[in-house]
Amino acid sequence: TVIPGFIDPHGHFPDSGFLKLHRVDLSPPPLGACSNIAEVLEQLHQKARVTKPGDWVVGAMINPAELEEKRFPTRNELDAVSVEHPVWLFHVSGHAGVANSLALAFRAVDKNSQDPAGGKFGRDPLTGELNGLCEGMSAMGKMGDSEFQISYEKFLSAYVDAADEYLGQGVTLAQNAWATKTLLGYFGQIANESHPPIDTMVLPAGFLEPKLTAGELDIPLPEPGSGIFLGPRKVFVDGSFHLQTACLTQPYFKPLNGDPHHRCELPFSREQMVTRISKLHDLGFQCHIHANGDAAADLALDAIEAAQRANRREDHRHTLIHSQNLREDQLDRMATAGVSVSFFPAHLHYFGDFHSAVTFGPDRVRNMCPTRWAEERGIRFTIHNDAQVTPTRPLHLMWCAVNRQSLSGKTIGQDQALSPLSALRAHTIDAAWQVFQEHDRGSIEAGKRADFAVLSGNPLDDPENMQKLSVSQTLVLGETRYRS
Description:
Layout: E1 2-4, E2 6-7, H1 15-22, E3 24-25, H2 37-49, E4 57-62, H3 75-81, E5 87-91, E6 96-99, H4 101-107, E7 120-123, E8 130-135, H5 137-140, H6 152-168, E9 171-179, H7 181-193, E10 199-204, E11 228-230, E12 233-236, H8 270-282, E13 287-290, H9 294-310, E14 319-321, H10 328-337, E15 340-343, H11 346-359, H12 361-364, H13 371-376, E16 381-383, H14 394-403, H15 420-425, H16 429-434, E17 452-455, E18 471-476, E19 479-483
Parallel strand pairs: 2-9, 3-4, 4-5, 9-10, 10-11, 12-13, 13-14, 14-15, 15-16
Antiparallel strand pairs: 1-17, 5-6, 6-8, 7-8, 17-18, 18-19
Helix pairs in contact: 1-6, 8-9, 9-10
């Protein structure tokens, strides 16, 4: 069966290459082998033994919610891994990390450091000493950048490796959804010095404007026709459900901090968010807005509506990212305002049992990732893996959106399930439309790019088993880039 090449609506290419080649994979089962802190520490020990003293040991994909101890390793435990290497671990969400003493020294924080706006440093409750946890982008600082400790040479090798992976899954347009100055320069350099094996849309961090467009950042940018190009500007409102830093209007079902009223306070005021979105809107940019919880979505929609009232644009296609528990009234607002959304149904599979038990409870979780509500209102939406939070596997992602089955086998909210055709559209033509690429990608039509995936069968025929299909060939502009 021939289908249009899959388009990644939201991910962090080439993070999978960073993880495979340059970092320690601390994923829990079924994606990895770390079930407890002892196994995490052993993986780090092995890396430290082959790493030059003074060089960093960087791990990724750690998820305390899936570890037996239900916590991060501490600063002291990471010091026991090595006092000769800075050790830094990224949480699976990318919204937090944990450091040993050398890494905290690099971050230049100690027990007297104040928590930054929108972030928090973890502390020992008895002594006040830092325990290594850095929660939120502002607390992580440079250590929170996806390319942290990645040189251009490492980036290049990761790009090639990740491109092979994506093409092997039938993806013909990758995306990096948060590029700060260094990463933008890397993408520009690879675009202009070589022939990138896969087309990539790069979303610059919104705070880089207007200096980026004015050419004031002194970095190479991709030349037209290179296969790498800039897309929407990215803005964050809140954090992660796993860390309970996503902002809700109702309390978390089981608050991790023990506060029965915990909803996570918004890190920005309405005025601040209106200013951020209006600036980008007035410059003519499309905004992709990370708004995980419904309180964050309220704030994002307020800002979009305010920007539109002040400066109406007929086809802005501003898009909410993740928005896991959108309410029906919010979807009504989105339909009226022309706001799109990219949903994350893989969360239902990999983390649905956690969300049922901890985040939302068994009742509210049923409407997590409300794709059917969006479809009923005529909202064009997409589905994504948010790689490397979950691996880029389009056929499995479609299966998640259609079957909504958790790792334990529970069906979560069948009323919100998509048809196979809707799931396919959400990863092809609607994914192209969402980023203004529908004129030459996303469907098989005369005059469009010959970007195809050849599958072992028809994904519309057997909804319960579509994830078992394989990609036998991927073509870009009619040229075979992958063959099984």
